[in-house]
Design goal:
heterodimer, A: four-stranded antiparallel beta sheet, 11 strands, B: mainly beta, five-stranded antiparallel beta sheet
Chain lengths: 114, 111
């Protein structure tokens, strides 16, 4: 089945630094991938749609200059949290198309900004 | 955009009983409705899904029903077991292939 590999699984960074999260589709090509954020005990909130070879589209209220998304190839999408602050601490998870209509999730990245 | 509401937020049942989680959606163009199970600290796992042209789907102890007219769908788990304890999310997919999630239901199955 479709596999999405995401790393790192967890990262701690200092306030003001940037963090890059990678999401790879291992056995399929994805022209579109999605990035979600999940705060503790809350639901997954769609942040943006990553489009291969073109700009990402962001959901309302998501700062595109803070959350940089690059989808340079059909198997790799990256999310960079720039100038991270403690309020950016969250669980970030990517998703790519799976079998039929289904979408498969990466393993997620726990970001802690100190 | 799509708005998905999910109830209840928490559900406690005795082992062996049934559990029902309900979701409503707002966008009549939504055409696919998956349910995910998420254990603490792990990624969501697809457990069952239903397309908009189907009213009901069953997979062993799990079933999903969809009422397009009323724009609601439900997850039914029968003969619950302690390992069913987790957070369950419903989702709706709009034609743009975006998924919008419900707020989640924490299911606790007491042995």
């Amino acid at each position: 089945g479709a596999v999405v590999s995401q790393h790192p699984s967890w990262v701690i960074c200092k306030s003001g630094t940037s963090v890059k999260i990678e999401c790879r589709s291992l056995d399929f090509q994805a022209t579109t991938m999605f990035w979600y954020r999940q705060f503790p005990k809350q639901s997954l909130m769609l942040m943006a749609t990553s489009n291969e070879g073109s700009k990402a589209t962001y959901e309302q209220g998501v700062e595109k200059d803070k959350f940089l998304i690059n989808h340079a190839s059909l198997t790799l999408s990256t999310l960079t949290v720039t100038s991270a602050h403690p309020e950016d601490s969250s669980f970030y998870i990517c998703s790519g198309p799976g079998a039929n209509y289904g979408y498969t999730f990466g393993s997620g990245t726990r970001l802690t900004v100190v | 955009g799509e708005n998905v509401e999910q109830h209840p937020s928490t559900l406690s049942v005795q082992e062996g009983d049934s559990a029902v989680i309900k979701c409503t959606y707002s966008d009549s163009a939504s055409n696919y409705f998956p349910w995910y199970k998420q254990e603490l600290g792990k990624r969501p796992q697809l457990i069952i899904d239903i397309r908009s042209n189907v009213g009901e789907k069953k997979d062993q102890r799990i079933a999903v029903t969809l009422n397009k007219t009323a724009k609601h769908f439900s997850l039914h788990i029968t003969e619950t077991q302690p390992e069913d304890s987790a957070v369950y999310f419903c989702a709706a997919r709009v034609p743009a292939n975006k998924f919008y999630f419900g707020s989640g239901t924490k299911l606790n199955v007491k042995p």
